[in-house]
Amino acid sequence: MKAIVAIARREAAAYFAGPIGWICLVLFALLAGMFFSIMLVGYASQASQMGNMGQDENVTEMLLQGLFGNLSVIALLMMPALTMGLIAADRRERSVELLLTSPVSSAQIVLGKFLGALGFATVMVLTTLYVPVALALMGEPDPGVFYASYGGFVVLMAVFVSIGLFTSSVTENQLVALALGFSINLSVWIMGWLGQMVPAGAVKSVVEHLSMLSHFEQLSKGVVHTNDVVYFVTVIGFFLFATTQRVEALRWR
After folding, report:
1. Which of 142, 159, 180, 216 has the fewest C-beta atoms lying within 10 Å of its C-beta?
2. What is the Rg, in whole angstroms, of the alpha carbon atoms belonging to the chain?
3. What is the rounded distance in angstroms from the CA atom of residue 38 to the CA atom of residue 44?
4. In 3-state terms, the chain is what percent helix, strand and coil (to 5)?
5. How many helices and strands (H and E) does the chain possess?
6. How many angstroms separate the CA atoms of 118 and 161, rounded?
7. What is the DSSP letter of 199?
């Protein structure tokens, strides 16, 4: 456990020591503020015309869900850049050999890097904590929706981190890892759109179930289903397992 924590701290600290981490953090915070401001102005304008300012359902539906819907696309684009060097950079610099020859298992290496990157991603999410404060001042929205939305978004970030960690383990070239990570993220994300074009039947059900977008939309609405939880746990577990096997293969080269 100490080895995992040490690796996680090293990876999280590395984001704050380099430009990429700060650029992504500031850019994410600015975009979140911009999206929230635009939606807030739109909501205030519509509410003043309809005379329903402060209604809980409207606050949650028009602001919170819309914000995380936009930020999920930003995360899809940004997370491959944050994860591309998790293992690829160590391989290029030959520092991965120090880890592989140390008394640390491949699973511990993978979990440490995963938790370090996820910790930084969580810091990015925490830059939006002004949103529930602002909405609470406007009305009394359901706190359960807040918890589900924020929790669901952190889980989504965990999925992107696990995918990026895997793509970073298959190559020494960070740009290749970036391209692979983005391709996988986008493929799983748009699968729900493809499901809408498939005729009703077993194939349509399978495609929709594999879509990350459909599962995330349920969580962002404050609806937590067992199949959504199982989906995200399975995806994260699969890519962490695949990464562990890849790191283990590097150990025996």
Report:
1. 142
2. 20
3. 10
4. 85, 0, 15
5. 14, 0
6. 7
7. P
Here the tokens at position 142 are 């359901």
Instruction: Please tell me the pTM assigned to this model.
Output: 0.87
Cβ contacts of 125 within 8 Å, gap of 6 or more: 150, 153, 154, 157
For 189, list phi and psi in degrees, rounded to 5. -70, -45
Instruction: Output b/e per residue, 72-109; b: 16+ Cβ within 10 A.
Output: bebbbebbbbbbbbbbbbbbeeeebeebbeeebebbbb
Query: Which of 136, 76, 31 is closest to 145 using CA atoms?
Result: 136
Counting every residue written for the chain, the total comes to: 253
Distance CA 111, CA 240 (A): 8
Q: Residues near 129 by Cβ (< 8 Å), separated by ≥ 6?
A: none
Handedness of CA 92, 93, 97, 102 (dihedral sign): negative
Kindly report each contact of residues 204-208 with a partner whose C-beta sits within 8 Å and lies 24 or more positions away, as own/partner.
Answer: none
| Tens digits of residue pLDDT in 4-38 | 888 899 899 999 988 888 999 999 999 999 988 88
For residue 107, the SS3 value is: helix
By the 8 A CB rule, do 108 and 8 touch?
no
